[in-house]
Amino acid sequence: MTFRAKHLLGIEHLHPTEITTLLDLADSYAEHNRRGVAHRDVLAGMTQINMFFENSTRTQASFEIAGKRLGADVMNMGMQASSIKKGETLIDTALTLNAMHPDLLVVRHPHSGAVDLLAQKVNCAVLNAGDGKHEHPTQALLDALTIRRAKGRLHRLSIAICGDVAHSRVARSNIMLLGKMENRIRLIAPPTLMPSGMNEFGCEVFENMEEGLKDVDVVMMLRLQKERMDGGFIPSEREYFHRYGLDADKLAHAKPDAIVMHPGPMNRGVEIDGNIADDINRSVIQEQVEMGVAVRMAAMDLLAQNLRASRTPQGQMV
Ligand code: NCD
């Protein structure tokens, strides 16, 4: 058994072989998606509920398409963060949903750890679609697949993660995944947006884009997460773009074949120059979205297999 996890809550507890298993399956789904091959039997008869307590465009759409492509009955519950109370209410919601016997629960929540908590209360497979500043495992997996396809490997690469590292669950999950696969990770951010102690995670830390981008294979840009900032972290967006926005001059310091990534949604002219984002010779941003569907199909397929294997004839998880 090469993928044992019951839930996909984060990258932290995944073994490198589980990551490789998932990426291999996702790679084949990516090829099938391009050819329009359907796999409606994989999740046939299963119910998938998407619960998004925070706004999302691509992640929610991607999970929905992935589930439908595999034949699940998909239900979207629009949960406005402002209309729910924390703690007990979340657990109550979980118990209510659990009583409807879903098989897969996809959850995005503004609080770190909320998805883990929920997973303890339900007897279906839970997928974390982003919890606060904590983890966003399917994003890191789709980034990994995109890198592997572009570079032909997922080890011994030099990868720069640039921008608002402090508020980014995308950065956290990527640092763990890329570290587990033995890559060199460079973090580039203004001191106000760089968490302390990042060297202990084996990352090299830079304040200057030109130095940090030198000879890297991959440039991963992050969005300025203004919704998670409770004060002034940057002097102005103009100044930020000048020092940290990815433009042709800064990109020239990376390897000539370096790829450019961004998880979206992008702020053009703030963290990335629109011309770089649209340069099909360098930017793999659209491919990241494409791989997102394939990775979510693979994740739900593997979790559904484990769920089936663990269920008693009465439908309980053991
Ligand atoms: C990311 C997220 O929501 O964490 N976006 C995404 O899932 N595509 C990154 C972001 O919002 O900046």
Report on this model:
The protein has 318 residues and is an alpha/beta fold. It has helices at residues 16-35, 58-69, 88-98, 114-121, 137-151, 169-180, 209-212, 237-244, 248-251, 274-277, 285-310; strands spanning 47-52, 73-78, 104-109, 125-131, 158-162, 184-188, 204-206, 218-221, 259-261. The strands form two sheets. Strands 7-6-5-8-9 form a five-stranded parallel sheet. The protein has a four-stranded parallel sheet with strand order 2-1-3-4, with helices on both faces. α1 (16-35) packs across α5 (137-151), α1 crosses α11 and α5 packs across α6. It is globular. Bound molecules: N-carbamoyl-L-aspartate.
**Backbone CA Rg:** 19 Å
What class would the helix/strand composition place it in? alpha/beta
Q: Using DSSP, what is the number of strands?
A: 9
Overall shape: it is globular
Gap between N and C termini: 17 Å
Catalogue the ligands.
Answer: N-carbamoyl-L-aspartate
H/E topology pattern: HEHEHEHEHEHEEHEHHEHH
Strand order of the largest sheet: 7-6-5-8-9
Structure, briefly:
This protein is an alpha/beta fold and 318 residues long. It contains 11 helices and 9 strands. The strands form 2 sheets. The chain has a 5-stranded parallel sheet with strand order 7-6-5-8-9.
